[in-house]
Amino acid sequence: MVASLAAIPAMAFGQDARAPAGSVTIISPKQAVEAALALSPALRGAGAAQQAARSDALQARLRPNPELRGTFENFGGVGGRGDYRGGRALETTIGIAQRIEC
């Protein structure tokens, strides 16, 4: 039993301590965070959710945009008859709407 316990540290020292090919040496906490964000899909998703929450908060403070509305009636088109032929009796209504929040 004593021989098997003595072999464990020997095996640990016999291992290659070099980093695998393509790995990055991290020397600061900032680099560790950047590497984790770049390599982890779960952390990238959390970052996207955080950005979406910030964008929602920004949008909530803005006023709504005005709306331009248009209506076209009595458009006879190609198959119209009489006064409605070819769009001669076309009635157009255009308006603008602005929602006012209290």
What does this molecule look like?
This is Transporter. The chain is elongated. Residues 1-8 have low confidence and may be disordered. By secondary structure, it is of the alpha+beta class. The protein contains 3 helices and 2 strands. The longest helix is centred in the middle third of the chain and has 20 residues, at 41-60. It has a domain at 48-75 and 90-101.
Task: Give the total of beta strands.
Answer: 2
The gyration radius over C-alpha positions equals 35 Å
Strand proportion, as a percent range, falls in 5-15%
H/E element string? HHHEE
Distance between the termini: 82 Å
- Could you tell me the mean pLDDT? 74
The helix content, as a percent range, equals 40-55%
Strand line-up across the major sheet: 1-2
- Give the oligomer, counting copies of the same chain as homo and different chains as hetero: single chain
- Structural class designation: alpha+beta
Low-confidence stretches: 1-8
Tally of contiguous helical segments: 3
Spatial shape = elongated
Largest sheet: 2 strands, antiparallel
Summarize the structure.
The protein has about 100 residues and is of the alpha+beta class.
Protein topology:
Layout: H1 2-14, H2 29-39, H3 41-60, E1 67-73, E2 91-97
Antiparallel strand pairs: 1-2
Organism: Teichococcus aestuarii
Protein name: Transporter
Highlighted features:
14% strand; 102 residues; 3 helices; two-stranded antiparallel sheet; 2 strands; alpha+beta; disordered N terminus
